Amino acid sequence: MTVKKADIENIVSEAIEMTNLARENDQKIPYAADTALYGPNGHLDSMGLVAFLIDIEERFMDQDIHLSLSDERAMSQAKSPFRSIHTLIDYIDSLIKEISS
């Protein structure tokens, strides 16, 4: 299974687009690597984060890639992988590399 970082970026971008469809214009999540997702200044509360992660997991499942983004490992990290779009993409990339090896 080969998943390029650009593929991960596309899936995360699509999930943000879907999230933004349900938001008012002033509440939309901008797509930039350093956009804060969760935590201080984050665009998502805990429920929004869970829904967002499920959307991403389902998009990977459509490609027969089974990821669990909100497991204990992710939640127990000293620095949350959900801090920004960049950290989320890196985290997903590391998970895919683990299951591919």
Give an overview in words:
This protein is mostly helical. Helix 1 crosses helix 2. The chain contains four helices and no strands. Helix content is 52%, strand content 0%. The longest helix has 17 residues.
Question: For the residues shown, what is the average pLDDT?
Answer: 92
Global structural class: mainly alpha
- Assign an overall shape: globular
Low-confidence stretches: none
Q: Give the SSE string.
A: HHHH
Report Rg: 13 Å
Helical content stands at: 40-55%
Strand content: under 5%
State the distance separating the first and last CA atoms.
Answer: 9 Å
Q: Please give the number of β-strands.
A: 0
The profile of the biggest β sheet is:
none
Count of runs of 4 or more consecutive helical residues: 4
Which helices and strands, and how do they pair?
Blueprint: H1 5-21, H2 46-61, H3 72-75, H4 85-100
Helix pairs in contact: 1-2, 1-4
Features:
single chain, 101 residues, mainly alpha, 4 helices, 52% helix, globular
Quick overview of this protein structure:
The protein has 101 residues and is mostly helical. It has helices at 5-21, 46-61, 72-75, 85-100. The longest helix is centred in the first third of the chain and has 17 residues, at 5-21.
